[in-house]
């Protein structure tokens, strides 16, 4: 088995909470903070921490606005985030292919 794909996995995405966030955002143009929090059953602080890490890596964009006079925070993947996520999934597929009997 070739260990190289394991070594190339993006450590920012690989953490399970951030992987879940990236997966959800990859399937939707944008999601509100509340939608992410509720779907992933995370605390506000935990989600904020993971989103901040993804934002600092340039993978997630945050937009703040108001809806019905209430603050609304939405998250979406950036082009860099979509590319990084696609590369991450591709590496996972390579790893799975290595483990299948020939």
Keywords:
102 residues; Arc Repressor Mutant, subunit A; 3-stranded antiparallel sheet; 3 strands
Description of the structure:
There is one protein chain. This protein is an alpha+beta fold. The protein has a single domain (4-86), classed as Orthogonal Bundle (Arc Repressor Mutant, subunit A), CATH 1.10.10. It contains six helices and three strands. The chain has helices at residues 4-8, 11-14, 16-26, 33-40, 44-56, 79-99, and strands spanning 31-32, 60-67, 70-77. It is elongated and about 60 Å long. It starts with a helix and ends with a helix. The relative contact order is 0.19.
Output the number of helix runs. Answer: 6
- Overall structural class, as computed from helix and strand content, comes to alpha+beta
How much of the sequence lies in strands comes to: 15-25%
The description of the largest β-sheet is: 3 strands, antiparallel
Nearest-integer average pLDDT: 94
The level of helicity is: 55-70%
Total beta strand runs: 3
Overall radius of gyration: 16 Å
The CATH class turns out to be: Mainly Alpha
**CATH architecture assignment name:** Orthogonal Bundle
The topology string of helices and strands comes to HHHEHHEEH
Give the spatial strand order of the biggest sheet: 1-3-2
Task: Tell me the span between the first and last alpha carbons.
Answer: 12 Å
Unreliable parts: none
Q: What is the fold named in CATH at topology level?
A: Arc Repressor Mutant, subunit A
Q: How many individual domains?
A: 1
What general form does the structure show? elongated
What's the short version?
The chain has one domain (4-86): Arc Repressor Mutant, subunit A (Orthogonal Bundle), CATH 1.10.10.10. The chain is built from 6 helices and 3 strands. It has helices at 4-8, 11-14, 16-26, 33-40, 44-56, 79-99, and strands at 31-32, 60-67, 70-77.
């Amino acid at each position: 088995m070739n260990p190289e794909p394991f070594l190339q996995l993006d450590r920012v995405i690989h953490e399970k909470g951030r992987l879940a966030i990236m997966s959800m955002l990859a399937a939707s143009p944008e999601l509100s903070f509340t939608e992410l929090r509720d779907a992933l059953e995370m605390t506000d602080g935990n989600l904020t921490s993971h989103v901040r890490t993804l934002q600092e890596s340039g993978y997630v964009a945050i937009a703040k606005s108001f809806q019905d006079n209430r603050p609304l925070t939405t998250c979406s993947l950036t082009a860099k985030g979509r590319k990084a996520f696609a590369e991450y999934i591709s590496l996972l597929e390579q790893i799975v292919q290595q483990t299948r009997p020939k």
